[in-house]
Amino acid sequence: MIVSMLAIYSTSAATPEHARVLLLNSYHPQYLWTEALTQGVKSELANLIEAENLHIEYMDERRFVSDPTYHEKWRQLLLYKYQQFKPDIIISSDDAAFHFLANEVDELFPNTPIIFGGVNVFKPHIIENKTNFSGILEGMEIKGNVELIYQLQPQVKEIILLADKTELGIRMVEQARSEMPYDLGKQVLVRIWDDFSIAEFKSYASQTSTKTAFLMLAVHKDKNGAYFSFAKELKDFATISKAPIYGMWGAIMIGQGVIGGLMNNPFEHGKALANMAKRVLSGTPIANIPLEANSKFSPTFDYNQLQKFNIDLNRLPLNSEIYFKPESFYQSNKSLVHGTVLTACILIAIIFILFANIQRRRKAETSLLELNDSLEHKIKFRTQELSDKNNQLKAMMEEMKHLANTDSLTDLPNRRSGARRLRKFMTRYLPSQDNLTIAMLDIDYFKSINDKFGHNVGDNILKRTSICLQNTIRPTDFAYRWGGEEFLILFSNTPVKSAFSACTRIQQHLAEIKTPDDKPVTVSIGIAQQQVNDSFEYILKRADESLYYAKGNGRNRIEMLYTEINKHKEQSGYCA
Ligand SMILES: Nc1nc2c(ncn2[C@@H]2O[C@H](COP(=O)(O)OP(=O)(O)OP(=O)(O)O)[C@@H](O)[C@H]2O)c(=O)[nH]1
What region holds the GGDEF domain (predicted)? Predict the structure, then answer.
Protein backbone atom coordinates (compact mmCIF):
# COMPACT_ATOMS: atom_id res chain seq x y z
CA MET A 1 0.00 0.00 0.00
CA ILE A 2 2.82 2.36 1.02
CA VAL A 3 4.70 1.47 -2.16
CA SER A 4 1.67 2.17 -4.33
CA MET A 5 1.06 5.49 -2.56
CA LEU A 6 4.66 6.50 -3.16
CA ALA A 7 4.31 5.52 -6.81
CA ILE A 8 1.15 7.68 -7.13
CA TYR A 9 2.89 10.68 -5.55
CA SER A 10 5.93 10.28 -7.75
CA THR A 11 3.78 10.06 -10.91
CA SER A 12 1.64 13.00 -9.97
CA ALA A 13 4.78 15.02 -9.42
CA ALA A 14 5.76 14.72 -13.15
CA THR A 15 6.35 18.03 -14.91
CA PRO A 16 2.92 18.92 -16.31
CA GLU A 17 4.12 20.03 -19.75
CA HIS A 18 5.84 16.65 -20.39
CA ALA A 19 3.05 14.61 -18.87
CA ARG A 20 1.28 11.96 -20.94
CA VAL A 21 -2.51 11.78 -20.62
CA LEU A 22 -4.71 8.93 -21.78
CA LEU A 23 -8.38 9.71 -22.42
CA LEU A 24 -10.33 6.44 -22.51
CA ASN A 25 -13.82 6.92 -23.93
CA SER A 26 -16.55 4.30 -23.57
CA TYR A 27 -18.03 5.08 -26.94
CA HIS A 28 -17.16 5.99 -30.52
CA PRO A 29 -16.55 9.63 -31.56
CA GLN A 30 -19.64 9.35 -33.79
CA TYR A 31 -21.51 9.44 -30.53
CA LEU A 32 -21.91 13.18 -30.07
CA TRP A 33 -21.72 13.05 -26.31
CA THR A 34 -18.27 11.42 -26.54
CA GLU A 35 -17.06 13.88 -29.13
CA ALA A 36 -18.19 16.90 -27.13
CA LEU A 37 -16.64 15.57 -23.92
CA THR A 38 -13.36 14.87 -25.78
CA GLN A 39 -13.34 18.45 -27.07
CA GLY A 40 -13.86 19.72 -23.52
CA VAL A 41 -10.87 17.72 -22.29
CA LYS A 42 -8.72 18.90 -25.21
CA SER A 43 -9.59 22.54 -24.73
CA GLU A 44 -8.76 22.46 -21.04
CA LEU A 45 -5.43 20.64 -21.50
CA ALA A 46 -4.34 22.54 -24.62
CA ASN A 47 -2.29 25.08 -22.71
CA LEU A 48 -0.75 22.53 -20.35
CA ILE A 49 0.52 19.52 -22.28
CA GLU A 50 1.82 18.93 -25.78
CA ALA A 51 -0.93 17.78 -28.17
CA GLU A 52 0.94 14.55 -29.06
CA ASN A 53 0.99 13.55 -25.38
CA LEU A 54 -2.80 13.34 -25.24
CA HIS A 55 -3.70 9.77 -26.29
CA ILE A 56 -7.38 9.23 -27.03
CA GLU A 57 -9.02 5.78 -27.18
CA TYR A 58 -12.63 4.94 -28.06
CA MET A 59 -13.97 1.61 -26.74
CA ASP A 60 -17.04 1.71 -29.06
CA GLU A 61 -19.06 0.07 -26.29
CA ARG A 62 -22.40 0.95 -27.86
CA ARG A 63 -21.63 -1.40 -30.72
CA PHE A 64 -19.90 -4.07 -28.61
CA VAL A 65 -22.02 -3.80 -25.53
CA SER A 66 -21.39 -6.49 -22.85
CA ASP A 67 -19.14 -8.45 -25.26
CA PRO A 68 -16.47 -10.40 -23.23
CA THR A 69 -14.44 -11.33 -26.31
CA TYR A 70 -14.26 -7.74 -27.37
CA HIS A 71 -13.25 -6.72 -23.86
CA GLU A 72 -10.43 -9.20 -23.82
CA LYS A 73 -9.06 -7.96 -27.14
CA TRP A 74 -9.23 -4.42 -25.82
CA ARG A 75 -7.33 -5.36 -22.71
CA GLN A 76 -4.57 -6.90 -24.77
CA LEU A 77 -4.39 -3.95 -27.14
CA LEU A 78 -4.14 -1.40 -24.33
CA LEU A 79 -1.59 -3.50 -22.49
CA TYR A 80 0.58 -3.64 -25.57
CA LYS A 81 0.28 0.00 -26.44
CA TYR A 82 0.66 1.59 -23.04
CA GLN A 83 3.56 -0.49 -21.85
CA GLN A 84 5.46 1.56 -24.39
CA PHE A 85 3.66 4.87 -23.76
CA LYS A 86 3.00 4.78 -20.08
CA PRO A 87 0.41 7.47 -19.17
CA ASP A 88 0.94 9.76 -16.16
CA ILE A 89 -2.80 10.06 -15.70
CA ILE A 90 -5.93 8.53 -17.24
CA ILE A 91 -9.24 10.27 -17.81
CA SER A 92 -12.17 7.96 -18.49
CA SER A 93 -15.56 8.86 -19.89
CA ASP A 94 -18.80 7.03 -19.21
CA ASP A 95 -19.72 3.81 -17.51
CA ALA A 96 -18.04 1.22 -19.74
CA ALA A 97 -14.55 2.75 -19.52
CA PHE A 98 -14.94 3.22 -15.78
CA HIS A 99 -15.92 -0.39 -15.18
CA PHE A 100 -13.19 -1.62 -17.56
CA LEU A 101 -10.52 0.36 -15.67
CA ALA A 102 -11.87 -0.65 -12.27
CA ASN A 103 -11.35 -4.28 -13.31
CA GLU A 104 -8.12 -3.97 -15.28
CA VAL A 105 -6.18 -1.06 -13.77
CA ASP A 106 -3.92 -3.11 -11.56
CA GLU A 107 -2.62 -5.10 -14.49
CA LEU A 108 -2.72 -2.48 -17.25
CA PHE A 109 -1.90 0.75 -15.44
CA PRO A 110 -0.73 -0.07 -11.93
CA ASN A 111 -0.79 2.96 -9.61
CA THR A 112 -1.72 5.36 -12.41
CA PRO A 113 -4.16 8.07 -11.19
CA ILE A 114 -7.55 7.77 -12.83
CA ILE A 115 -10.09 10.57 -13.15
CA PHE A 116 -13.43 9.18 -14.24
CA GLY A 117 -16.52 10.94 -15.48
CA GLY A 118 -19.83 10.29 -17.21
CA VAL A 119 -20.74 7.43 -14.90
CA ASN A 120 -24.48 7.42 -14.65
CA VAL A 121 -24.99 4.80 -12.02
CA PHE A 122 -22.12 4.80 -9.60
CA LYS A 123 -21.61 1.99 -7.08
CA PRO A 124 -18.91 3.02 -4.58
CA HIS A 125 -17.90 -0.56 -3.76
CA ILE A 126 -16.42 -0.95 -7.24
CA ILE A 127 -13.43 1.23 -6.29
CA GLU A 128 -13.58 0.55 -2.59
CA ASN A 129 -9.89 -0.33 -2.15
CA LYS A 130 -8.55 1.80 -4.96
CA THR A 131 -6.87 5.02 -3.86
CA ASN A 132 -5.91 6.15 -7.34
CA PHE A 133 -9.51 6.83 -8.46
CA SER A 134 -11.34 10.12 -8.28
CA GLY A 135 -13.76 11.83 -10.61
CA ILE A 136 -17.09 13.48 -11.20
CA LEU A 137 -20.27 11.46 -10.94
CA GLU A 138 -22.44 12.27 -13.89
CA GLY A 139 -25.43 10.67 -12.30
CA MET A 140 -28.90 11.08 -13.74
CA GLU A 141 -31.67 13.58 -13.26
CA ILE A 142 -34.74 11.36 -13.42
CA LYS A 143 -36.81 12.97 -10.70
CA GLY A 144 -36.15 16.51 -11.87
CA ASN A 145 -37.07 15.57 -15.43
CA VAL A 146 -40.29 13.86 -14.36
CA GLU A 147 -41.26 17.03 -12.48
CA LEU A 148 -40.28 19.17 -15.48
CA ILE A 149 -42.51 17.04 -17.76
CA TYR A 150 -45.45 17.59 -15.48
CA GLN A 151 -44.71 21.32 -15.37
CA LEU A 152 -44.68 21.57 -19.18
CA GLN A 153 -47.53 19.10 -19.81
CA PRO A 154 -50.01 19.57 -16.97
CA GLN A 155 -52.42 17.27 -18.85
CA VAL A 156 -49.95 14.35 -18.77
CA LYS A 157 -51.30 11.06 -17.44
CA GLU A 158 -48.46 8.71 -18.28
CA ILE A 159 -44.67 9.16 -18.23
CA ILE A 160 -42.69 6.29 -19.75
CA LEU A 161 -38.98 5.93 -18.91
CA LEU A 162 -37.08 4.22 -21.75
CA ALA A 163 -34.13 1.89 -21.00
CA ASP A 164 -32.84 -1.52 -22.08
CA LYS A 165 -31.40 -4.74 -20.69
CA THR A 166 -27.74 -3.82 -21.20
CA GLU A 167 -25.57 -3.47 -18.07
CA LEU A 168 -25.95 0.30 -18.13
CA GLY A 169 -29.65 0.01 -18.84
CA ILE A 170 -30.13 -2.30 -15.91
CA ARG A 171 -28.20 0.07 -13.59
CA MET A 172 -30.27 3.02 -14.76
CA VAL A 173 -33.56 1.20 -14.25
CA GLU A 174 -32.43 0.20 -10.76
CA GLN A 175 -31.67 3.81 -10.03
CA ALA A 176 -35.02 4.96 -11.42
CA ARG A 177 -36.91 2.37 -9.42
CA SER A 178 -35.11 3.38 -6.24
CA GLU A 179 -36.36 6.92 -6.69
CA MET A 180 -40.00 5.98 -7.40
CA PRO A 181 -42.77 6.75 -6.73
CA TYR A 182 -42.54 10.35 -8.00
CA ASP A 183 -44.88 12.57 -6.10
CA LEU A 184 -46.47 14.86 -8.64
CA GLY A 185 -49.53 15.69 -6.57
CA LYS A 186 -51.76 14.24 -9.33
CA GLN A 187 -52.45 10.84 -10.62
CA VAL A 188 -49.68 10.40 -13.13
CA LEU A 189 -48.55 6.94 -13.97
CA VAL A 190 -44.75 6.62 -14.22
CA ARG A 191 -43.79 3.46 -16.06
CA ILE A 192 -40.48 1.91 -17.12
CA TRP A 193 -40.00 0.23 -20.47
CA ASP A 194 -36.76 -1.71 -20.62
CA ASP A 195 -37.73 -4.62 -22.81
CA PHE A 196 -39.36 -3.41 -26.02
CA SER A 197 -38.67 -3.69 -29.70
CA ILE A 198 -38.25 -0.70 -31.97
CA ALA A 199 -41.43 -1.71 -33.82
CA GLU A 200 -43.44 -1.96 -30.58
CA PHE A 201 -42.34 1.51 -29.55
CA LYS A 202 -43.23 2.99 -32.91
CA SER A 203 -46.65 1.39 -32.89
CA TYR A 204 -47.43 2.70 -29.40
CA ALA A 205 -45.93 6.14 -29.87
CA SER A 206 -47.76 6.77 -33.14
CA GLN A 207 -51.13 6.32 -31.44
CA THR A 208 -50.58 8.21 -28.24
CA SER A 209 -51.05 11.91 -27.45
CA THR A 210 -49.59 14.63 -25.26
CA LYS A 211 -51.25 12.87 -22.33
CA THR A 212 -48.15 10.69 -22.60
CA ALA A 213 -44.48 11.70 -22.35
CA PHE A 214 -41.33 9.61 -22.88
CA LEU A 215 -38.14 10.12 -20.91
CA MET A 216 -35.12 8.51 -22.53
CA LEU A 217 -32.69 7.02 -19.97
CA ALA A 218 -30.40 4.93 -22.16
CA VAL A 219 -31.23 2.54 -24.96
CA HIS A 220 -28.42 0.73 -26.71
CA LYS A 221 -30.28 -2.27 -28.09
CA ASP A 222 -33.92 -3.25 -28.35
CA LYS A 223 -35.25 -6.53 -27.06
CA ASN A 224 -34.40 -8.21 -30.37
CA GLY A 225 -30.78 -7.10 -30.11
CA ALA A 226 -31.23 -4.41 -32.84
CA TYR A 227 -28.75 -1.58 -32.44
CA PHE A 228 -30.34 1.65 -31.30
CA SER A 229 -28.71 4.85 -32.41
CA PHE A 230 -29.65 8.28 -31.15
CA ALA A 231 -28.81 9.69 -34.57
CA LYS A 232 -31.16 7.38 -36.48
CA GLU A 233 -33.60 5.42 -34.32
CA LEU A 234 -34.21 8.23 -31.87
CA LYS A 235 -34.92 10.55 -34.77
CA ASP A 236 -37.41 8.03 -36.21
CA PHE A 237 -39.07 7.68 -32.81
CA ALA A 238 -39.47 11.44 -32.49
CA THR A 239 -40.89 11.77 -36.01
CA ILE A 240 -43.53 9.11 -35.43
CA SER A 241 -44.37 9.85 -31.80
CA LYS A 242 -47.50 11.84 -30.93
CA ALA A 243 -46.02 12.40 -27.48
CA PRO A 244 -42.87 14.38 -26.72
CA ILE A 245 -39.64 12.53 -25.94
CA TYR A 246 -37.52 14.02 -23.16
CA GLY A 247 -33.90 13.24 -22.39
CA MET A 248 -31.00 14.24 -20.21
CA TRP A 249 -27.93 13.71 -22.42
CA GLY A 250 -27.59 17.13 -23.95
CA ALA A 251 -25.34 17.07 -27.00
CA ILE A 252 -26.42 13.66 -28.30
CA MET A 253 -30.12 14.28 -28.00
CA ILE A 254 -30.76 17.91 -28.89
CA GLY A 255 -31.43 18.09 -32.60
CA GLN A 256 -32.41 14.39 -32.82
CA GLY A 257 -36.10 15.00 -32.19
CA VAL A 258 -35.98 15.15 -28.42
CA ILE A 259 -38.00 18.02 -27.00
CA GLY A 260 -35.43 18.69 -24.26
CA GLY A 261 -35.21 18.26 -20.52
CA LEU A 262 -32.83 18.84 -17.67
CA MET A 263 -29.70 18.01 -19.63
CA ASN A 264 -26.03 17.84 -18.94
CA ASN A 265 -23.32 19.42 -21.06
CA PRO A 266 -20.60 16.95 -22.18
CA PHE A 267 -18.18 19.70 -23.20
CA GLU A 268 -18.31 21.28 -19.75
CA HIS A 269 -18.14 17.83 -18.16
CA GLY A 270 -14.95 17.08 -20.16
CA LYS A 271 -13.44 20.39 -19.08
CA ALA A 272 -14.21 19.70 -15.44
CA LEU A 273 -12.54 16.25 -15.68
CA ALA A 274 -9.43 17.73 -17.36
CA ASN A 275 -9.32 20.39 -14.68
CA MET A 276 -9.24 17.73 -12.00
CA ALA A 277 -6.45 15.96 -13.95
CA LYS A 278 -4.46 19.21 -14.09
CA ARG A 279 -4.56 19.45 -10.29
CA VAL A 280 -3.04 15.97 -10.08
CA LEU A 281 -0.36 16.82 -12.67
CA SER A 282 0.43 19.97 -10.72
CA GLY A 283 1.24 17.92 -7.65
CA THR A 284 -1.99 17.44 -5.71
CA PRO A 285 -2.14 13.74 -4.66
CA ILE A 286 -5.24 12.14 -6.17
CA ALA A 287 -6.09 10.74 -2.78
CA ASN A 288 -6.62 14.33 -1.68
CA ILE A 289 -9.10 15.03 -4.45
CA PRO A 290 -12.56 13.90 -3.38
CA LEU A 291 -15.23 12.60 -5.70
CA GLU A 292 -17.48 15.35 -6.91
CA ALA A 293 -21.24 14.95 -6.82
CA ASN A 294 -23.48 14.95 -9.89
CA SER A 295 -22.56 17.18 -12.78
CA LYS A 296 -24.89 20.00 -13.66
CA PHE A 297 -28.23 19.30 -15.38
CA SER A 298 -29.78 22.45 -16.74
CA PRO A 299 -33.00 23.02 -18.73
CA THR A 300 -32.28 22.71 -22.43
CA PHE A 301 -34.87 22.58 -25.22
CA ASP A 302 -35.38 22.22 -28.96
CA TYR A 303 -37.57 25.13 -30.13
CA ASN A 304 -39.06 23.15 -33.05
CA GLN A 305 -40.22 20.34 -30.79
CA LEU A 306 -41.70 22.83 -28.29
CA GLN A 307 -43.70 24.28 -31.19
CA LYS A 308 -44.70 20.86 -32.49
CA PHE A 309 -46.26 19.95 -29.13
CA ASN A 310 -47.66 23.41 -28.41
CA ILE A 311 -45.69 23.81 -25.22
CA ASP A 312 -46.27 27.23 -23.72
CA LEU A 313 -42.84 28.89 -23.56
CA ASN A 314 -43.91 30.68 -20.39
CA ARG A 315 -43.91 27.35 -18.65
CA LEU A 316 -40.18 26.80 -19.29
CA PRO A 317 -37.81 27.36 -16.37
CA LEU A 318 -36.34 30.85 -16.38
CA ASN A 319 -32.76 29.77 -17.08
CA SER A 320 -33.74 27.57 -20.06
CA GLU A 321 -31.45 27.35 -23.05
CA ILE A 322 -33.43 27.04 -26.28
CA TYR A 323 -31.80 25.66 -29.42
CA PHE A 324 -32.90 26.28 -33.03
CA LYS A 325 -35.04 29.25 -32.10
CA PRO A 326 -35.24 31.34 -35.24
CA GLU A 327 -33.39 34.51 -34.61
CA SER A 328 -35.43 37.64 -34.88
CA PHE A 329 -34.30 40.24 -37.37
CA TYR A 330 -32.96 42.15 -34.39
CA GLN A 331 -30.93 39.21 -33.07
CA SER A 332 -29.34 38.43 -36.41
CA ASN A 333 -28.65 42.07 -37.27
CA LYS A 334 -27.95 43.52 -33.85
CA SER A 335 -25.13 45.84 -34.87
CA LEU A 336 -27.07 47.00 -37.96
CA VAL A 337 -30.19 47.67 -35.86
CA HIS A 338 -28.14 49.42 -33.15
CA GLY A 339 -26.36 51.49 -35.78
CA THR A 340 -29.63 52.39 -37.51
CA VAL A 341 -31.37 53.25 -34.24
CA LEU A 342 -28.37 55.32 -33.15
CA THR A 343 -28.27 57.11 -36.51
CA ALA A 344 -32.03 57.66 -36.40
CA CYS A 345 -31.72 59.01 -32.84
CA ILE A 346 -28.91 61.34 -33.88
CA LEU A 347 -30.92 62.47 -36.95
CA ILE A 348 -34.04 62.99 -34.84
CA ALA A 349 -31.95 64.94 -32.32
CA ILE A 350 -30.48 67.06 -35.14
CA ILE A 351 -33.95 67.60 -36.66
CA PHE A 352 -35.29 68.50 -33.24
CA ILE A 353 -32.45 70.95 -32.63
CA LEU A 354 -32.89 72.46 -36.13
CA PHE A 355 -36.64 72.66 -35.65
CA ALA A 356 -36.20 74.27 -32.23
CA ASN A 357 -33.71 76.65 -33.83
CA ILE A 358 -36.11 77.56 -36.62
CA GLN A 359 -38.88 78.10 -34.10
CA ARG A 360 -36.60 80.24 -31.97
CA ARG A 361 -35.48 82.24 -35.00
CA ARG A 362 -39.08 82.71 -36.19
CA LYS A 363 -40.06 83.83 -32.72
CA ALA A 364 -37.11 86.19 -32.62
CA GLU A 365 -37.98 87.50 -36.09
CA THR A 366 -41.61 88.04 -35.07
CA SER A 367 -40.60 89.85 -31.90
CA LEU A 368 -38.07 91.86 -33.92
CA LEU A 369 -40.78 92.82 -36.42
CA GLU A 370 -43.14 93.70 -33.59
CA LEU A 371 -40.39 95.68 -31.92
CA ASN A 372 -39.65 97.35 -35.23
CA ASP A 373 -43.32 98.21 -35.74
CA SER A 374 -43.61 99.49 -32.22
CA LEU A 375 -40.37 101.46 -32.63
CA GLU A 376 -41.53 102.87 -35.95
CA HIS A 377 -44.84 103.75 -34.37
CA LYS A 378 -43.08 105.34 -31.42
CA ILE A 379 -40.69 107.20 -33.70
CA LYS A 380 -43.61 108.44 -35.83
CA PHE A 381 -45.47 109.44 -32.72
CA ARG A 382 -42.40 111.11 -31.21
CA THR A 383 -41.58 112.80 -34.53
CA GLN A 384 -45.12 114.07 -34.78
CA GLU A 385 -44.98 115.16 -31.15
CA LEU A 386 -41.63 116.82 -31.78
CA SER A 387 -42.88 118.46 -34.96
CA ASP A 388 -45.98 119.71 -33.11
CA LYS A 389 -43.82 120.99 -30.27
CA ASN A 390 -41.49 122.53 -32.82
CA ASN A 391 -44.39 124.23 -34.56
CA GLN A 392 -45.71 125.39 -31.21
CA LEU A 393 -42.25 126.66 -30.35
CA LYS A 394 -41.96 128.33 -33.71
CA ALA A 395 -45.36 129.94 -33.22
CA MET A 396 -44.36 131.00 -29.72
CA MET A 397 -41.08 132.35 -31.00
CA GLU A 398 -42.94 134.13 -33.77
CA GLU A 399 -45.36 135.42 -31.19
CA MET A 400 -42.51 136.46 -28.90
CA LYS A 401 -40.69 137.99 -31.81
CA HIS A 402 -43.86 139.78 -32.76
CA LEU A 403 -44.39 140.89 -29.17
CA ALA A 404 -40.75 141.95 -28.89
CA ASN A 405 -41.00 143.99 -32.05
CA THR A 406 -44.57 145.23 -31.84
CA ASP A 407 -46.20 147.89 -29.78
CA SER A 408 -49.00 146.28 -27.82
CA LEU A 409 -51.31 149.29 -27.89
CA THR A 410 -51.18 150.30 -31.52
CA ASP A 411 -49.94 147.07 -33.06
CA LEU A 412 -47.33 149.06 -34.94
CA PRO A 413 -43.68 147.85 -35.01
CA ASN A 414 -41.99 149.28 -31.90
CA ARG A 415 -38.86 151.31 -31.33
CA ARG A 416 -36.56 148.22 -31.25
CA SER A 417 -37.87 147.13 -34.62
CA GLY A 418 -37.51 150.61 -36.06
CA ALA A 419 -33.96 151.02 -34.77
CA ARG A 420 -32.91 147.64 -36.25
CA ARG A 421 -34.32 148.46 -39.65
CA LEU A 422 -32.81 151.90 -39.64
CA ARG A 423 -29.36 150.43 -38.86
CA LYS A 424 -29.85 147.88 -41.66
CA PHE A 425 -30.94 150.52 -44.16
CA MET A 426 -27.98 152.72 -43.26
CA THR A 427 -25.51 149.91 -44.04
CA ARG A 428 -27.35 148.86 -47.20
CA TYR A 429 -27.98 152.24 -48.83
CA LEU A 430 -25.19 154.37 -50.29
CA PRO A 431 -25.94 158.04 -49.71
CA SER A 432 -24.40 158.87 -53.12
CA GLN A 433 -26.92 156.69 -54.98
CA ASP A 434 -29.91 156.05 -52.70
CA ASN A 435 -32.07 158.44 -50.73
CA LEU A 436 -32.80 157.18 -47.20
CA THR A 437 -35.01 159.71 -45.50
CA ILE A 438 -36.55 159.50 -42.04
CA ALA A 439 -39.24 161.51 -40.30
CA MET A 440 -39.79 161.87 -36.54
CA LEU A 441 -43.46 162.65 -35.86
CA ASP A 442 -45.00 163.87 -32.53
CA ILE A 443 -48.67 164.58 -31.74
CA ASP A 444 -49.15 168.14 -30.62
CA TYR A 445 -50.49 168.94 -27.14
CA PHE A 446 -51.19 165.32 -26.43
CA LYS A 447 -50.84 165.79 -22.70
CA SER A 448 -53.75 168.20 -22.67
CA ILE A 449 -55.87 165.65 -24.64
CA ASN A 450 -55.14 163.09 -21.98
CA ASP A 451 -55.74 165.53 -19.28
CA LYS A 452 -58.95 166.77 -20.81
CA PHE A 453 -60.56 163.58 -22.04
CA GLY A 454 -58.76 160.83 -20.20
CA HIS A 455 -56.17 158.24 -21.15
CA ASN A 456 -58.64 156.06 -22.99
CA VAL A 457 -59.33 158.84 -25.42
CA GLY A 458 -55.55 159.41 -25.67
CA ASP A 459 -55.02 155.70 -26.36
CA ASN A 460 -57.72 155.74 -28.94
CA ILE A 461 -56.15 158.68 -30.74
CA LEU A 462 -52.80 156.87 -30.66
CA LYS A 463 -54.42 153.79 -32.26
CA ARG A 464 -56.21 155.76 -34.94
CA THR A 465 -53.01 157.72 -35.64
CA SER A 466 -51.17 154.45 -36.14
CA ILE A 467 -53.82 153.11 -38.52
CA CYS A 468 -53.76 156.34 -40.42
CA LEU A 469 -49.97 156.21 -40.73
CA GLN A 470 -50.09 152.64 -42.00
CA ASN A 471 -52.71 153.49 -44.56
CA THR A 472 -51.02 156.65 -45.75
CA ILE A 473 -47.39 155.54 -46.33
CA ARG A 474 -46.28 153.46 -49.32
CA PRO A 475 -45.80 149.71 -48.95
CA THR A 476 -42.06 150.23 -49.22
CA ASP A 477 -42.07 152.72 -46.28
CA PHE A 478 -42.26 151.81 -42.58
CA ALA A 479 -43.94 153.41 -39.57
CA TYR A 480 -42.93 152.74 -35.94
CA ARG A 481 -44.21 153.83 -32.60
CA TRP A 482 -41.02 155.38 -31.28
CA GLY A 483 -42.37 156.09 -27.80
CA GLY A 484 -45.27 157.92 -26.13
CA GLU A 485 -46.99 159.98 -28.79
CA GLU A 486 -43.87 159.92 -31.01
CA PHE A 487 -43.59 157.94 -34.32
CA LEU A 488 -40.70 157.21 -36.70
CA ILE A 489 -41.23 156.84 -40.44
CA LEU A 490 -38.57 155.31 -42.74
CA PHE A 491 -38.92 156.36 -46.36
CA SER A 492 -36.83 153.96 -48.36
CA ASN A 493 -35.18 155.35 -51.45
CA THR A 494 -37.13 158.60 -51.10
CA PRO A 495 -35.68 161.99 -51.82
CA VAL A 496 -36.34 164.74 -49.27
CA LYS A 497 -38.89 166.38 -51.53
CA SER A 498 -41.01 163.25 -51.71
CA ALA A 499 -40.63 162.79 -47.95
CA PHE A 500 -41.98 166.27 -47.37
CA SER A 501 -44.91 165.50 -49.70
CA ALA A 502 -45.60 162.26 -47.86
CA CYS A 503 -45.45 164.04 -44.46
CA THR A 504 -47.82 166.73 -45.70
CA ARG A 505 -50.22 163.99 -46.83
CA ILE A 506 -49.92 162.39 -43.39
CA GLN A 507 -50.74 165.67 -41.66
CA GLN A 508 -53.80 166.03 -43.88
CA HIS A 509 -55.08 162.57 -43.14
CA LEU A 510 -54.39 162.86 -39.39
CA ALA A 511 -56.35 166.08 -39.30
CA GLU A 512 -59.41 163.99 -40.04
CA ILE A 513 -59.03 162.44 -36.57
CA LYS A 514 -60.95 164.61 -34.14
CA THR A 515 -60.70 165.08 -30.42
CA PRO A 516 -63.99 164.87 -28.43
CA ASP A 517 -64.27 168.64 -28.69
CA ASP A 518 -64.02 168.29 -32.46
CA LYS A 519 -60.59 169.64 -32.90
CA PRO A 520 -58.32 167.99 -35.50
CA VAL A 521 -55.23 166.09 -34.40
CA THR A 522 -52.09 167.85 -35.52
CA VAL A 523 -48.54 166.60 -35.57
CA SER A 524 -45.11 168.22 -35.76
CA ILE A 525 -42.55 166.43 -38.01
CA GLY A 526 -38.74 166.60 -38.18
CA ILE A 527 -37.08 165.22 -41.32
CA ALA A 528 -33.47 164.01 -41.80
CA GLN A 529 -31.71 162.41 -44.79
CA GLN A 530 -28.76 160.01 -44.72
CA GLN A 531 -25.48 161.71 -45.45
CA VAL A 532 -21.96 160.56 -46.29
CA ASN A 533 -20.29 159.20 -43.12
CA ASP A 534 -23.60 159.45 -41.31
CA SER A 535 -24.42 157.38 -38.21
CA PHE A 536 -27.52 155.94 -36.68
CA GLU A 537 -27.37 158.23 -33.69
CA TYR A 538 -26.57 161.28 -35.75
CA ILE A 539 -29.40 160.94 -38.28
CA LEU A 540 -31.86 160.42 -35.40
CA LYS A 541 -30.39 163.42 -33.59
CA ARG A 542 -30.94 165.58 -36.66
CA ALA A 543 -34.51 164.32 -37.07
CA ASP A 544 -35.18 165.00 -33.38
CA GLU A 545 -33.72 168.46 -33.53
CA SER A 546 -35.79 169.24 -36.65
CA LEU A 547 -38.88 168.00 -34.76
CA TYR A 548 -38.14 170.23 -31.83
CA TYR A 549 -37.50 172.99 -34.21
CA ALA A 550 -41.01 172.43 -35.64
CA LYS A 551 -42.45 172.36 -32.16
CA GLY A 552 -40.64 175.53 -31.31
CA ASN A 553 -41.94 177.21 -34.44
CA GLY A 554 -45.56 176.77 -33.40
CA ARG A 555 -46.28 173.08 -34.07
CA ASN A 556 -48.24 171.41 -36.89
CA ARG A 557 -45.14 171.91 -39.01
CA ILE A 558 -42.62 169.96 -41.01
CA GLU A 559 -39.00 170.92 -40.46
CA MET A 560 -35.60 169.86 -41.70
CA LEU A 561 -32.57 171.54 -40.13
CA TYR A 562 -29.02 172.07 -41.48
CA THR A 563 -28.12 172.20 -45.16
CA GLU A 564 -30.65 169.71 -46.13
CA ILE A 565 -33.57 171.79 -45.13
CA ASN A 566 -32.27 174.83 -46.87
CA LYS A 567 -31.34 172.87 -49.90
CA HIS A 568 -34.77 171.31 -49.87
CA LYS A 569 -36.54 174.61 -49.34
CA GLU A 570 -34.62 176.01 -52.26
CA GLN A 571 -35.51 173.04 -54.39
CA SER A 572 -39.19 172.82 -53.43
CA GLY A 573 -39.99 176.36 -52.37
CA TYR A 574 -41.68 174.67 -49.35
CA CYS A 575 -42.45 176.82 -46.27
CA ALA A 576 -44.25 175.21 -43.32
N1 LIG B 1 -53.10 158.22 -23.47
C2 LIG B 1 -51.83 158.09 -23.60
N3 LIG B 1 -51.01 159.09 -23.32
C4 LIG B 1 -49.68 158.97 -23.47
C5 LIG B 1 -49.15 157.74 -23.95
N6 LIG B 1 -47.81 157.89 -24.01
C7 LIG B 1 -47.51 159.16 -23.58
N8 LIG B 1 -48.64 159.82 -23.27
C9 LIG B 1 -48.80 161.14 -22.77
O10 LIG B 1 -48.48 162.08 -23.76
C11 LIG B 1 -48.17 163.29 -23.09
C12 LIG B 1 -47.08 164.00 -23.80
O13 LIG B 1 -46.97 165.23 -23.27
P14 LIG B 1 -45.82 166.27 -23.59
O15 LIG B 1 -44.54 165.58 -23.76
O16 LIG B 1 -45.90 167.28 -22.63
O17 LIG B 1 -46.21 166.83 -25.00
P18 LIG B 1 -47.47 167.65 -25.50
O19 LIG B 1 -48.45 167.68 -24.46
O20 LIG B 1 -48.01 166.81 -26.79
O21 LIG B 1 -46.91 168.90 -25.95
P22 LIG B 1 -46.09 169.20 -27.23
O23 LIG B 1 -45.43 167.99 -27.72
O24 LIG B 1 -45.09 170.15 -26.89
O25 LIG B 1 -47.09 169.59 -28.24
C26 LIG B 1 -47.86 162.89 -21.67
O27 LIG B 1 -48.87 163.47 -20.83
C28 LIG B 1 -47.89 161.44 -21.67
O29 LIG B 1 -48.40 161.00 -20.47
C30 LIG B 1 -50.04 156.68 -24.22
O31 LIG B 1 -49.66 155.58 -24.63
N32 LIG B 1 -51.38 156.94 -24.06
Answer: 434-563
